[in-house]
Sequence to fold (114 residues):
Amino acid sequence: MHSSNTQGQPSRGDRHIPVFMIDLLSRSEESAVVVLCTADWVGSSDMFLDFLHEEVADKAQISVVDIEAHPDVKRYLSIEKLPTTLILKNRHILDRIEGVISRRKIKERLQDCT
Fold:
């Protein structure tokens, strides 16, 4: 259960839920959301994003989070490796993929969640 801090913002334990994350979780009620957490300096992210658009655009919403622009999301999700891909559905994180893995494995994991 989520609690609120003194400013009325939702929190999970002592970690405040970033507004950006609240939006993604809300969108996941309508359909699955695939979130690519990356940064400008991560070279593999552009190719991976193209792959996501090819494979899941008809099954899920795709969102990109620049963790350098959103350090609160990085802290909240404890992101240590880039890229990190999250699959959200019904306000829950169903899967978390850290780093680069093969296209075949990604397809399998996406099929299981979308």
User: Anything to note?
Assistant: Helices lie at 19-27, 44-56, 71-77, 103-113. DSSP finds four helices and seven strands in the chain. Residues 1-14 have pLDDT under 50 and may be disordered. The first strand starts at residue 3 and ends at 4.
